[in-house]
């Protein structure tokens, strides 16, 4: 799948509803690449740990798997490495550095060393800023201009989670129907099957 198509799909908040076949093709390709990936290629160990903590705060483990359980950080690293251009990758990494800077200014330590309530407060602040930014002008294609790191982070986290097998089957209750649907097939003996109302 082409980089522009992937980023266009990720740029829509309702990507799964608008283009399920393209998104599923992207997810299948990404999951195959993830199986081959041994370690992070864009994120350093500290950035990787920050992404894991942030993603787990957004989608914690409950009676269904959390973000860490389905490899959200690994998925985000793959997207940053394989599909993002240098400007988007730099914006994402700058946003991660800003998260640590906020934590240091507020609490005197890195984000991953903050307490859960301190980490939550930082995400609440980032979410508030994101909402203020999305109230701004729209682009000619009708989408809000996304320059906000947290909006990008949330979109990648949700895409990674809901395109994983556990996210799709245990959270969304997505069920794959084997084979193909044949609405009006021929019955044995050559008679046409009657459609059920």
How helix-rich are the residues, as a percent range?
55-70%
C-alpha geometry: elongated
How many helix segments?
A: 9
Number of E strands: 0
Structural class per helix/strand content?
A: mainly alpha
N→C terminal distance: 39 Å
Number of domains: 1
Compressed to H and E, one letter per element, the order equals HHHHHHHHH
Radius of gyration: 20 Å
Question: What's the rounded overall pLDDT mean?
Answer: 77
List keywords for this structure.
mainly alpha; 197 residues
Structure description:
This protein has 197 residues and is mostly helical. The chain has one domain (3-171). The protein has nine helices and no strands. The chain has helices at 3-11, 15-18, 20-36, 45-58, 72-82, 86-107, 116-134, 149-162, 165-171. Helix 4 (45-58) crosses helix 5 and helix 5 (72-82) crosses helix 8 (149-162). The protein is elongated. The model is unreliable at 1-9, 11-19 and 137-145 (pLDDT under 50).
Which helices and strands appear, and what pairs or packs with what?
Elements: H1 3-11, H2 15-18, H3 20-36, H4 45-58, H5 72-82, H6 86-107, H7 116-134, H8 149-162, H9 165-171
Helix pairs in contact: 3-5, 4-5, 5-8, 6-8
What's this entry about, in short?
The chain has 197 residues and is mainly alpha-helical. 59% of the residues lie in helices and 0% in strands.
């Amino acid at each position: 799948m082409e980089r522009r198509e992937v980023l266009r799909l990720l740029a829509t908040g309702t990507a799964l509803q608008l283009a399920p076949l393209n998104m599923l093709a992207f997810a299948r390709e990404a999951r195959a690449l993830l199986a081959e990936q041994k370690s992070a290629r864009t994120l350093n160990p500290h950035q990787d740990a920050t992404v894991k903590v942030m993603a787990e705060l957004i989608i914690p483990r409950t009676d269904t798997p959390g973000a860490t359980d389905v490899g959200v950080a690994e998925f985000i690293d793959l997207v940053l490495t394989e599909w993002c251009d240098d400007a988007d990758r730099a914006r994402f990494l700058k946003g991660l550095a800003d998260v640590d800077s906020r934590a240091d200014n507020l609490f005197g330590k890195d984000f991953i060393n903050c307490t859960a309530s301190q980490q939550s407060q930082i995400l609440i602040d980032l979410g508030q800023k994101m909402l203020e930014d999305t109230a701004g002008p729209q682009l000619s294609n009708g989408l809000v201009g996304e320059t906000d790191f947290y909006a990008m982070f949330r979109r990648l986290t949700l895409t990674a989670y809901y395109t994983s097998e556990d996210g799709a089957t245990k959270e969304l209750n997505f069920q794959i129907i084997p084979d193909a649907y044949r609405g009006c097939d021929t019955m044995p003996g050559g008679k046409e099957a009657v459609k059920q109302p």
